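User: Second chain of the day. Same drill as before.
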Amino acid sequence: MLRIEKFFRLRENHTTFRRELLGGLTTFMTMAYIVIVNPAILSNSNGAGMDFSAVMGATCLASAFATLVMAFAARYPIALAPGMGLNAFFSFEICAAMGVPWQVALGMVFISGLVFTILTLVRVREMILEAIPESLKLATAAGIGLFIAFIGLEHAGVVDIQHETLVKIGDLHRPATLLALGGLALTCVLLARKVRGAIIIGILASGAVALATGMIHFGGVTGIPHVGKIFAKLDIRGALHLEFIAPMVVLLFFDMFDTIGTLIGVSSQAGFLRQGKLPRATRALLSDSVGTMSGAVLGTSTVTSYIESAAGVAEGARTGLANIVTALLFVAAFFFAPVAAMFGSGVEVSRTIEVAGQLEQYTTSLYPVTASALIVVGFLMMANVGKIKWRDMTEGIPAFLTIILMPLTFSISHGLAIGFISYPLLKAFSGQARKVHWLVYVLAGLFVLRYIFLAV
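Assistant: Same format as last time:
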């Protein structure tokens, strides 16, 4: 006990064992939804189509490992797990839209983590982060939020397909849709009342109702997931193609944005910053990049620092000891794979589409238990949109295009690309060319070349 107290410097950080334990538990409760939601996204039949149980196991192990690395290397109470938005980009864009096998996509994730590690060690990351306009950083988070919320609304059956108008309101009388809306209402009320773990409580409550009404079926409580199906299946050589550079750059940037934003946000709240700088920042960033590489080996999308760690800090967590608690809880969750699989399973429904005046019926799946989590996470990611300088057209228009095109093109990378192309153009034609970092011009040029020479 004394060695632990000395290593984590509990007295120096004005904390206690009890505060660290409570903080670690609180952080886990606020981000435990990822254990169910991440495999639900990566196993979606319209996405990467990976094995749910295996991804669930990889999610738990990758989260636990990365969180422990942060605990011992940087000694900060900042937990890590596969990032929301990054998993959607992996599943629905890289795998589904681009037709990339998930093995190759995991190779892309590994390479992006490796590049992040190199940039951190040679301290180039600071230049990149300073070069990216603040408005585009904020717009990227907001756009991903809308994208995730759109997927959640589709999974709930609230949004449906319409041939003429592309989308329409779904059948709100379907039991699965009503359950999803009920789960959303409960989660929102809990959030409004500032209840810790609101999202996971909403998932568990919806799952209980779905189980009681026969929408999903009991498959047991404990069991070890078959992680061998995806462990070490990444294809790094297959990822080394010119056409994959753009999505790997997107993976790298998203991870950098998420990590830096989380580190700054949580550190400011906890009082870790010293004259505006974070001690042991390099170690914290390396924890993130190493987590991403290990996650790719285990079989999951990009691992990143979680802003939900702020909940644990609010409960008194100040050291990596809290992370050890959070990591152990992720390990414990590993042994409850049947519960996660049950709550993440789809509910088959019949849909009707009018095509050229003819009604066509088809069967698809809704995900009423996890849909509310996606919608709420989308809302939370929109929080900083008010910080964008909307009255400055050279800032507001690129931000708007970035935000709106992500959900409407069902593509995070297209939204980001148009934002990077329009930003320097508007600045240049408004006489503010020198205010734009040269790296932004380079990125804009690369995105333009992508649209000229590569298939959209």
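The mean pLDDT is 86.

User: Great, on to the next one.
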